[in-house]
Design brief:
Structural class: alpha+beta
CATH topology of the largest domain: Nucleotidyltransferase, domain 5
Order of helices and strands: HEEEHEEEHEHHHEEEEEEEHHHHHHH
Strand content: 15-25%
Oligomer: single chain
Number of domains: 3
CATH architecture of the largest domain: 2-Layer Sandwich
Helix content: 25-40%
Radius of gyration: 38 Å
Shape: elongated
CATH superfamily of the largest domain: Ribonuclease H-like superfamily/Ribonuclease H
Number of strands: 14
CATH class of the largest domain: Alpha Beta
Largest sheet: 5 strands, mixed
Strand order of the largest sheet: 3-2-1-4-7
Distance between the termini: 112 Å
Length: 409
């Protein structure tokens, strides 16, 4: 300032700043009051680091729901802050209280709010379903204004300062067991600094004014956008689920619960699958596949045997011998023989009889007989074989003894 011509003292600058500060408006706040059963506040807080089931140490997170009137809490430690975890914690919190508040005041976590906005926040589709199922309203705090849920913020600080530092935890189950005991025996029975009452005492008075649980607990699910790949399956949680082949390349909605996975095109329901139990598992509905793929999968060994019996006994015997081959997989040969019924069932049955009479149960033999019309020739003088008990390339002892000297066997 002296470089700019100021000749006053340092204390004069201090007095001037103090005067300017006194003239500024004061930062005034107002404490919010809540009626019994009116609201609860929800937040996540960092928990201790424990050994995860995968063998690596991992941070836990404390889900805390605090009733605004009584200050009674629900506390659960979890491994992540995903949408599925968020919804599951809500369900277990309501079961813990055995009732539901009229509204929940939350921050703008991605598991609940897609787009944060002071006036028009966009709620996750799954969380909106949860609110409708349990009949509560969602109130998201304005961005960068956590004071609007100061009750649960204080509850998280109290949890970190009074519960975590004094205890040792073996695993997540032990942590949650101790947390619930602490809520009921210590936190719930202390004299709260704001209400000057025990939270559990106030909760008994508040309980009657909270909403009852639904008669049937809803099956909460999470929503995900997925793309139907060229194999007629979408991928979710490392498993595959089929959808109609006509929608290949389209973006679909997938709703996942603990037991089922449902697929939607916008709001039109397409199908529902049982949820896969392991990574890489494929859940497929045959009707979702293109016609050529359906035909390929439907023409199995059982189908071939059934079709052959419908044509005739000789055709059934030839197909059975093809499928019983101990050296080669001859399913396609059996399918080919069944396909030859385009020449007529009677001609195919006669051709199979002739092939069996020559002990040549092969697709090419039956096809050649039909091509030349040889199935119409008489079978007299042909020694028929009634059994086919050895492999095609096996040789009998008589064959070996009758071989010429010096022949290598």
């Amino acid at each position: 300032m002296r470089e700019h011509g100021f000749s006053g003292s340092y204390s004069a600058v201090v007095r001037m700043l103090g005067q300017l500060r006194a003239e500024q408006p004061k930062d005034v706040t107002v404490r919010l009051d809540f009626a019994p059963g009116d609201a609860a506040q929800v937040d996540f807080g960092a928990g201790p680091i424990l050994d995860h089931p995968d063998g690596k140490p991992r941070r836990t997170w404390a889900f805390v729901m605090t009733l605004c009137y009584s200050r009674h809490q629900y506390v659960e430690f979890v491994w992540d802050q995903s949408s599925a975890t968020w919804l599951g914690c809500h369900r277990r919190a309501f079961e813990w209280f055995q009732c539901v508040p009229a509204r929940l005041i939350i921050d703008n976590a991605k598991c609940a709010i897609i787009k944060a906005c002071r006036f028009d926040p966009l709620v996750q589709r799954a969380y909106a379903e949860c609110a409708e199922a349990f009949s509560f309203k969602i109130e998201a705090c304005p961005p960068r204004d956590p004071q609007k849920k100061g009750i649960v913020e204080s509850g998280v600080k109290y949890l970190k300062g009074n519960f975590l530092p004094t205890r040792v935890f073996r695993h997540l189950l032990d942590l949650n067991t101790q947390a619930k005991g602490w809520v009921m025996n210590e936190a719930g029975r202390r004299k709260h600094g704001t209400t000057h009452e025990q939270p559990l005492v106030l909760f008994e008075a508040e309980r009657a004014l909270l909403q009852a649980l639904p008669d049937v607990m809803p099956d909460l699910g999470t929503w995900h956008r997925v793309v139907l790949h060229r194999d007629c399956h979408v991928q979710f949680d490392k498993a595959l689920y089929s959808a109609p082949f006509g929608l290949v390349g389209h973006t679909l909605w997938l709703r996942a619960t603990d037991t089922v996975v449902a697929l939607y095109e916008d709001y039109r329901h397409l199908c529902t699958h049982v949820r896969a139990q392991r990574a890489g598992q494929r859940q497929t509905v045959r009707d979702h596949l293109p016609p050529q793929a359906k035909a390929f999968f439907e023409h199995d060994r059982q189908w071939c045997a059934t079709q052959a019996r419908a044509i005739g006994p000789r055709c059934a015997e030839l197909v059975d011998r093809l499928l019983a081959d101990r050296v080669s997989e001859r399913l396609r040969a059996a399918q080919g023989v069944i396909g030859l019924k385009r020449h007529g069932p009677e001609r195919l049955e006669a051709a199979c009889a002739r092939a069996l009479a020559h002990d040549s149960p092969h697709y090419r033999t039956v096809k050649g007989i039909l091509a030349t019309g040889a199935e119409a020739l008489p079978l007299e003088g042909i020694q028929t074989s009634q059994t086919y008990s050895r492999a095609r390339f096996a040789r009998t002892a008589a064959d070996l003894f009758s071989a010429k000297p010096g022949t290598l066997h």
